[in-house]
What we know:
The chain is an alpha/beta fold.
Amino acid sequence: MLKVKPVAPERLPELLRRMPKAELHMHIEGSLEPELMFALARRNGLTLPYADVEALRSAYVFDDLQSFLDIYHAGTRVLRTEQDFYDMAHAYLVRAAADKVLHAEIFFDTQTHTSHGVAADVAVRGLHRACVDARAEFGISTGLILCFLRHLSEREALECLEQVLPQRELLLGVGLASSEVGHPPEKFARVFARARALGLRLVAHAGEEGPPAYIWSALDVLKVERIDHGVQAVQDAALMARLAHDRIPLTVCPLSNLKLRVFPTLNAHNLWRLMDAGIVATINSDDPAYFGGYINQNFIQTFAALGLNAQHAWQLASNSFEASFIDPAPKRQYAEQLQAFFETFV
Ligand code: ADE
Ligand code: ZN
């Protein structure tokens, strides 16, 4: 562990903005800003059920995960062509690079698009091309993680996996997203086993709204390497000990938890409890266009609300690289870059 020099509270936002970091939990469809949504609707000859950007943005008030998912799915209807997926991903990667994200692992869900008549390979090709270009433009490294929609059946998830097999080499891994409660991880045991046999990396949303039992089964049945959200783990001491002992990372999304009312206020967020328990927690943006901020806003607002300091900043950034699926050599380089940043930050 690096022992970090104290930083005055008024300089913490600058430190957080400039600090190298990885983002491991963001849904690319959740980065579709209202301006781009209107532009894509126009380009594709579609009409949105909102008068303008302001009217759309003012609809972004949610009671829970499901109320968000309904609006999120409606927004994806404007995505029709490979270029649409490219433009959406490029816009996110410009923002991420500006936030000093050196590496991003990006979720996408083809089942949403195939249900609108858009073939899975259209999405994969557009997203991949944006990732290749962003590497050249900004030096940012990326990976694409296909999320199965858990409110649908396992048979549909298996079909979804089959559809992307011709592009297997463009994928880093698979995940599990959408409505959590009532759709436990074990429902997807076979499709995760198949993905594992294909050499794909495995993650799953668990313990966002759902109980600790869903985190246990994501680990023990699906054999995931990382848990997305996982904040409900604090209800189960044995689970907390398991996560810390096995260094299973949690990709925590504080502004998402606030907007979806997992916590009533940011001050009530349990990130510090996860960190105090020695869990490899990270900070991420989830669906930044809907939840009021990209990764740096998540860092800045959470640090202010919880009174976190520069030592926590180093820990969270260090965790983000440790928790990533980057190869060992570049992972070491990112860790060195992070250490150099903290040693020279004045
Ligand atoms: N899909 C997009 N954002 C999500 C979230 N926070 N939880 C589950 N599924 C999602
Ligand atoms: Zn998510």
